[in-house]
Amino acid sequence: MDRDAAPAESVAAVVPPFEWSFVRKVGIVGSGLVAGAAVLGLVATAMGSPPWVIHTARLFLVFGGAITTGAAVSMRPDLWQAWALGAVTGALAVAGTPAHWDSFRLLFGVCGAVAAAWAVALLVSVRYRLYALSAVMVFHFAGIFFATTSPPSTPWVTEQAFIRVYNPYLQFLYLRNAYHFYSPEPGPASVIVCLLKTETGTDAQGRKVYETRWVVLPKRPADVKDPLGLTYYRRLSITEQIARATPALLQPVHVAEKNEMLPRRRMVLRSIPLHPAEEETIQYRLPQPEVARFVLPSYASHIILENTDAAGAGKTTVKIYRLEHKTLSVEEFTNVLNRPGVISSPYHPSTYRPYFLGEFGFVPDPDKPGATHIELLNPQEPMLYWLVPIGPRPGGRPPGDPDKREFIDYMSIHALDTLNLSERDVDDPQYRDKVFDWNQLR
Q1: What pTM value is reported for the model?
Q2: Hey, where are the domains in the chain?
Q3: Dist. CA 139–CA 346, nearest whole Å
Q4: pLDDT single digits (tens) 57-86
């Protein structure tokens, strides 16, 4: 290399850029593919119930066109015309993507809006472009600030800005949950515990016989599928979606819901008491409407189909419990005072708070003869959305009986429908092999 050679005046002098005529052709091909998907979308709408092959063809056209147009934009990111092609492709991709791929519709819409904004930014002077980018950066980092200050107790300014402006933006970029940690205290983590109950026939008395199976989500090591455990932690974050409770439940607008549930809860109060260590006001957690109507049935359908075959899915129901894991204090964990009976194990069953989220199953779909859909089987269940206690056994473990535990597992009692056996509890030999094994959560 000649050290005395003059340095290049620009990148273009070293790596010649693609000709705009070529970039335009690539971008038009990509836009054309996506436009074809949009036309097929109009055909599918006109047909009402199109064959699956049309939706599949739309997906291939959209993804192929999006990648092709993206390649064109990457060739000449300095030209506003290239970004304009990207904006057009993004708009067409929203129309071309099937409706049940709604997340990708949102993604293409946002990408198209960003491409349109950058095309405008390239048309204006550098001075105004700098102003615009500075405003975007201030907006973004202000959102992160409001995310860190949104947990209770929430300042009024944060509450207004977060709810009215930043919540959709931060939710889309998934910048909410991680910035809530340690501000001021980390909230409890949750796992999902489910009891699958499959009808297998009848006994001699004509009563239905069921096969039961417990499922834990997420579960180690089964869900650790990569060296960093990313698959496990992604599944762990799924449980946070069903942990979203209706806010201000005790405010006047929600008093009717609370009062309606109390009489039902008292129906089983003798069999399943309230949790002795928690206030009654927080033992009922009503999920947010979208969680109860859409998220929970979706999870239930996945759990049943993932753990049964096609023939058994229609005969299977699933009871879902969300287990909040209470964090021990430093004094409890170390037991510095050496007090007897103090729970110092972070995995002790009494450190979990199971909330019953309902029993789901497949039922005939009244709108589609011959088809089924998943739904909550008993909206009047007395324990629905209530905390199911894992309580200490009065007097501790009976001496000389190693099979009995020092706690009473009311979750297993409720899940196995053994309310009439609560005095003997589920340590009874006929139920001992069916109760939940708490060692699965270690």
Answers
A1: 0.64
A2: 11-123, 126-180, 189-201+208-388
A3: 41
A4: 999 999 999 999 999 999 999 999 999 999
